[in-house]
Amino acid sequence: MAKSILVTGGTKGIGKAILFRFAAEGFDVYTCARKADQLEQLTKELNEVFPTIRVLARQADLSLKSDAVRFAEEVKDLVIPDVVVNNTGIFLPGALHNEPEGNFETTLQTNLFSAYYITRAFTPDFIHRKSGHIFSIGSIAGLTAYPNGGSYAVSKWAMLGFTKCLRQELMPYGIRVTSVLPGATLTASWEGVDLPPDRFMKASDVADAVWGAYNLSPQSVVEEIVIRPQLGDI
């Protein structure tokens, strides 16, 4: 039976790179995103490059608990994945003291609560099976505060804490938990920024790091992966 991976927010950037990295190793892939046209394009690309794997791509807004639970149940009807990657996220610029009303709630619901709901959907089966690997895609913003990124940074600090707690809880059951904390990566989030592409990391580098961490023996776990551009933070 083929192994499988679930990646939330898999239509672009780091999420898409992780999907393609694992698909190249024969994994069936399951993902979701908000935009139907991007999901259709992703499915087409995956089917063309990897015609033998199963691809499930569903429209879902994971800032909504109902959508997160629905998507998880759709996947569970088919498989309990070997790997879950909590990748869904948004960045809304602004300072905590004067950002637009609702930014904080929307950011926390998307970046943190979605991971909470998706993780809780699968952990009982992981515990019963005594295996599984959960990755949380955080950010160096979860290590270093910076201006104009208040709600985003708070969500990523919270994601790191969530993942650390999860690691301790699931340790006795053979379930590995890894925080991934990338720096500036060349994705759609940086469109319009007047910097050369080689100033950023490649999404494929983050995907390779996730694949490498997954491939350790069951006796070892990478608890945190911090990856920065060679020339430092932007």
From TrEMBL:
<comment type="similarity">
    <text>Belongs to the short-chain dehydrogenases/reductases (SDR) family.</text>
</comment>
<dbReference type="Pfam" id="PF00106">
    <property type="entry name" value="adh_short"/>
</dbReference>
<keyword id="KW-0560">Oxidoreductase</keyword>
<dbReference type="InterPro" id="IPR036291">
    <property type="entry name" value="NAD(P)-bd_dom_sf"/>
</dbReference>
<protein>
    <submittedName>
        <fullName>Putative oxidoreductase</fullName>
    </submittedName>
</protein>
<dbReference type="InterPro" id="IPR002347">
    <property type="entry name" value="SDR_fam"/>
</dbReference>
<dbReference type="InterPro" id="IPR020904">
    <property type="entry name" value="Sc_DH/Rdtase_CS"/>
</dbReference>
<dbReference type="GO" id="GO:0016491">
    <property type="term" value="F:oxidoreductase activity"/>
</dbReference>
